[in-house]
Amino acid sequence: MRPFKYSTAKNPQAATQLVTGNPQAKFLAGGTNLLDLMKEDVERPTELVDITRLNLTQIQLLPKGPNQGGVSLGGLGKNTDTANHPLVRQNFPLLTQAILAGASAQIRNMATNGGNLNQRTRCSYFYDTAMPCNKREPGSGCGA
């Protein structure tokens, strides 16, 4: 791994300020994808902003109406908590099934809703830094 600055955000506004102006800064929450990418030298952040202490775990139903209805998932909610939440189980059973099928219990206990939406590609060529990859290095080609 390469050296990086580590900061802890006290609120969402502070988190945003800490990464503003630094395209190499990354948010750290569950870390199940980011830390692996850093170990493989695929991601090289100059700063990690720890957002794990922010209160962004709420799960709530959205209002129902024409073209409405759904669920709001807090970005820092753990996958296990989301899959087992009564509102999700009752109203969105396919979401529960997808979360439970998507990873091991150990990963689900660490991984966050936001991380699931923002994780990088799962392509094995992306993770192999010896191979060209347009997603990792735009314009380099594709090893597949």
TrEMBL record:
Keywords: FAD, Flavoprotein. The keyword Protease does not apply. The keyword Repeat does not apply. Residues 1-144 form the FAD-binding PCMH-type domain. InterPro entries: Diverse_Substr_Oxidored (IPR051312), FAD-bd_PCMH (IPR016166), FAD-bd_PCMH-like_sf (IPR036318), FAD-bd_PCMH_sub1 (IPR016167), FAD-bd_PCMH_sub2 (IPR016169), Mopterin_DH_FAD-bd (IPR002346). One of its GO terms (molecular function) is FAD binding. PANTHER family: OXIDOREDUCTASE, XANTHINE DEHYDROGENASE SUBUNIT C-RELATED. This is Periplasmic aromatic aldehyde oxidoreductase, FAD binding subunit YagS. The lineage of its organism: Bacteria, Pseudomonadati, Bacteroidota, Cytophagia, Cytophagales.
